[in-house]
Amino acid sequence: MKCFITGLLLWFTITLPSSVRGAEAMEYRLLTFKDELKTAVKDDATWKICGDYFAASDSTEGKIVHFISERMVAEQLATTLSFVTIDRIIVSIEKEATTPTVSILWRGWNTRFVLKMNAKEYEAGLPCIAVKGTEV
After folding, report:
1. Backbone phi, psi, residue 39, to 5°
2. Cα dist. 19→7, 57, 88, 114, 121 in Å?
């Protein structure tokens, strides 16, 4: 029995740090909107483009924010279209961020999206990612 418990503890000691590192690595780069999308949204009164990375629209559930992220799936790049209510977004302004990224904090029904960006991208995206939609 002692050997079993010791083996189990060793297994957790070896595998747990790699699991924690894997959780931290779930940061995805945001992609800029293509010109075709910007042109299509320009003529649509319900959607608003903010900067190169964000779009927003009002709905019965509140403000919906749209962004596109890129991640590796089975060693290939995959594009993910996200439509998220504003209450699920957390913004982190980081001086050294060159490209905005998103980290997904999975908590069942309470999933959060952490957007990391520099001040310039934050200012451009603020009308879309702010609760009231005010401009700077």
Report:
1. -65, -40
2. 18, 37, 24, 20, 31
Question: Distance of CA 6 to CAs 1, 10, 30, Å?
Answer: 9, 6, 44
Specify the pTM: 0.72
User: Taking a C-beta distance cutoff of 8 angstroms, is the pair 27, 116 a contact?
Assistant: yes
CB 50 within 8 A of CB 73: no
Tell me how far CA of residue 85 lies from CA of 5, 59, 102, 112, 124, in angstroms. Answer: 45, 9, 15, 10, 19
* C-alpha distance from residue 71 to each of 55, 66, 68, 108, 135 (Å): 20, 16, 10, 21, 30
Could you read off the pLDDT of 91-126 as tens digits, one per residue? 999 999 999 999 988 877 788 999 999 999 999 999
Higher pLDDT, 131 or 17: 131
